[in-house]
Hints:
Elements: E1 2-3, H1 5-10, H2 12-22, E2 31-32, H3 35-43, E3 50-52, E4 61-76, E5 88-89, E6 99-100, E7 118-119, H4 123-131, E8 137-140, E9 151-157, E10 162-170, H5 177-196, E11 200-201
Amino acid sequence: MAVLPSIANHLLPDIIKRFSTSYPGICIHLHDDNSQSVQQCVERNEVDFGLGSRWRPNAELIFTPILRDSFSLVCHKDHPLAQAKTPLTWKTLAGEIFLDTGVSRALPMRKFIGAPKLDFPNIITLLAMLRSNIGVTALPALAIPRGDNELVSRELIDPVETRDICLISRRGATPSPAAEAMLETLSEQLPTLAKALNLQELQACQIIDD
Length: 210
């Protein structure tokens, strides 16, 4: 399967642990990359399914929303915006040095930020720049590092921007027994994980053939 790095980091460890215990004879190949790469892996039939955001429409694919998270400001603990005690509006970011990412580039609220001065598609590079207090960014909840003593997040409102995480599958394809077993494990584990991570569960994880 192909997944976003944030999903690999925060959702999959418990799921794979459960899966490996229940199905010790099944091998797992995991490809983690951005939404474009996840979708392309499914399009090219390189994986059984993907977990990521919709990169572009494709009539040959089925996008089943399963989780939703919201965007927050992320910055260094010494940045002035880190001192905010109440939610921030997107207009507050006007004039700030905004570090753009692939996940934030298409947000409607980017109109308040203007043309980005810095663009870091790689999340590891982005976090390094944030830790150097170069600027600020906006990340969905799953992509925000946990337990980082240098970075803080602040809620962004007016409006709340959200991201849907989808199960991406090929239309008309019959999942392999191994893929069905993994999807069943996902379906069983997602409600507990979504609650623990404060994510909105949208619907049961299943491949829909229509």
